Here is the input.
Amino acid sequence: MTSLSRRHLMIAATGIAAVAASPRIAFAQPAAAAPAGPFKLDPLAYPVNALAPHIDARTMEVHHDLHHQAYVNNLNNFAKENPQIASMPIAEVLGNLDSVPESIRTGVRNNLGGHANHTMFWRIMGPNGGKPEGEVLAAIDRDLGGMEKFRTDFDAAGLKVFGSGWTFVTVAKDGKLALETRPNQDNPMMDGKHALLGNDVWEHAYYLSYQNRRADYLKAWWNTVNWKAVEERYAAAKAGTLGV
Here is the structure.
């Protein structure tokens, strides 16, 4: 038998060590089917690249198809043993979280809040969103000091959110507007209010393009607002028919 040289032994040992230290290759597996249930994720009303360059396509895919879908999946799992969370309007559940079983209360708060927040978020964005007009513009002038002040105050509020959360414009039934922020996936419906519009300042909403530059994201986001949709939400709020 031919004996291995010292050099060959060293090379062989190095190779074995490298294989042992390297991460195992994870072969792609078919995606697990989402749990069936009463909660559904609506498809986007526009292509994932429609908001570029302000929000890139990959961020939209990850945000909508993964993050939002996860909230829906979790809710459907909760609903298997607690169907009442799907039998009532979302506003009623979020406004009465104390009536939700304690074992799932935090999960419902986070996931139903996240579902409501994101459903609103996708609906009030779109390409070629125009400018605020009519009653919405009049309400911004009356309650928020005009469009320039409103945008400045809204972005400043978004910058002050520590960690993850949202900046909202809430709307009362009489049409009065107000600014507020919420941590995590909390929603104004938890306090009997409704969101006219809102911006997601969780890092997953902007990090692929903006990294830690939240201020740049906040400024760019205004280019994605669909003011026609906001006007429709405002009319629905005054009529008492606004959902999420």
Summary: DSSP finds ten helices and three strands in the chain.
